[in-house]
Amino acid sequence: MLSIFFSPRGTTKKTARAIAGHDGPVQERDLLGRPLTEDLDVPAEEPVLVAMPVYAGRIPQHCFEQLSAHLKGHGGPAIAVAVYGNRDYDDALTELQDLLEANGFHVVAAGAFIGRHSIFDHVAAGRPDEADLAAMADFGGRCREVLAAYVPGGDHPPIAIKGSHDLPPHKKVSFHPSAGDRCMKCNACANACPAGAIPKETPWVTDETKCISCGACIYLCPTQTRQYRGEAYETAARGFEAKCAQRREPEVFF
After folding, report:
1. What angle do CA 186, 188, 189 make, to 5 degrees?
2. 11, 113, 127, 175: which is deepest, by most CB within 10 A?
């Protein structure tokens, strides 16, 4: 199996690994450190798992562009996975389904799973938890049953997934991390930023016109000085936490 994901804070990677399991060899590709810049052809006999975080109801735009341009299928099966922060995954799964189908794959299963919110990190704190991991493992087992019965070249009508196929434009996120006075100038954040929003010469600065608020810089900062800050953020966080306090559960589609 080929497992492709974008995991700035490690949650989507954890989800993909829990689903893929340990029954066979898995080749991983994290678009955070290894973006797709050339075509990646996947033979029909190799299943592909594509797991993406959800930003404002969509998969990250730069991931969409990379996958659309360079991930090439030849009639093989695909599993689509969205990881979201307990608000909603909206149209992320149908967006991923349409992308994969357009690129020569047949989406045979899809799942939406919950992880700690990447901006308001008190929301879904501690998730995925043991119940989530068990649900991921169960989903992975059911996927392996479907993959074992898959016949390349057969008739594979699209599965029904919650969400719209008529997608609105991507939305810009309002909040961006900044560095405090404990910045060590180690450039861990600048080296990892997938959007090139942190200059190496001044890594305490964030170019908000480029930042996608993925949280990679927060996750990697050795002093934890990179954070979301400000009165507007704190006010928004309180409202968001109240709105999204109720626990949501994974949803799967076959």
Report:
1. 115
2. 113
| Residue type (1 letter), 126 | G
Q: pLDDT band at residue 76, thresholds of 50, 70 and 90? A: very high
3-state secondary structure of 192: helix
CA atoms lying within 13 Å on the CB side of residue 180: 12
Res 209: pLDDT: 94
What single letter denotes the amino acid at residue 131?
A
Q: Quick one: pLDDT at residue 102?
A: 97
Separation of alpha carbons 140 and 222, rounded Å? 34
**% the chain with pLDDT above 70:** 100
Sign of CA dihedral 99, 254, 163, 120: negative
Q: Which of 6-10, 17-21, 178-182, 191-195 has the lowest mean pLDDT?
A: 178-182
Average pLDDT in the 43-52 region? 97
Beta bridge partners of 106: 77
With residue 207 as reference, give the H or E element that holds it: none
Distance CA 149, CA 78 (A): 13
Cα–Cα distance measured from residue 26 to residue 11, given in angstroms and rounded to the nearest whole number: 18
How far apart (Å, rounded) are the C-alpha atoms in residues 13 and 15? Answer: 5
Residue 85 tokens read as: 């922060």
